[in-house]
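Here is one chain, start to finish.
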Amino acid sequence: MSNVPRPLDATMPVFMPADTGSPNPGRLSPGAAIASWALQIVAAAILCQTLFFKFTGAEESVYIFATLGMEPWGRIGSGLAELIASVLLLVPRTVPIGALLSLGVISGAILSHLTRLGIVVKDDGGLLFALALVVFAGSVIVLVIRRGQFLAFVRVILPARGS
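Its structure:
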């Protein structure tokens, strides 16, 4: 088999390798697909749930971003990034990109909690921090489950040297 990839056809997902040597390239087992979708939905739901508070300037959101010295642009910018990540997590062809973006956004949130905000923010009992950890873990697991799709995307973006 040559190293020259076959061209993609309309039936192949965009970020899947054209030829993996498998009869069903890019297919997840039923259990992996269910686990991935459950985690994608949970992460997207958590990210979307916070959008209302960020975009309406809720007291707790304003407090968080003022404490970080990023109010209002950090609040609005992170909200937009979370919205985009949520959509990408729910579109089958862009799941790995959404998981990677959500990892980036939520890593910033976790680091902010650990360095400037504290685990408990405005008597929330650590709920925001716990939700951030759920999104982080879910996104990592989705990337592991969909690593073939993610690696195919990376190969498209960063083609092999000398090709």
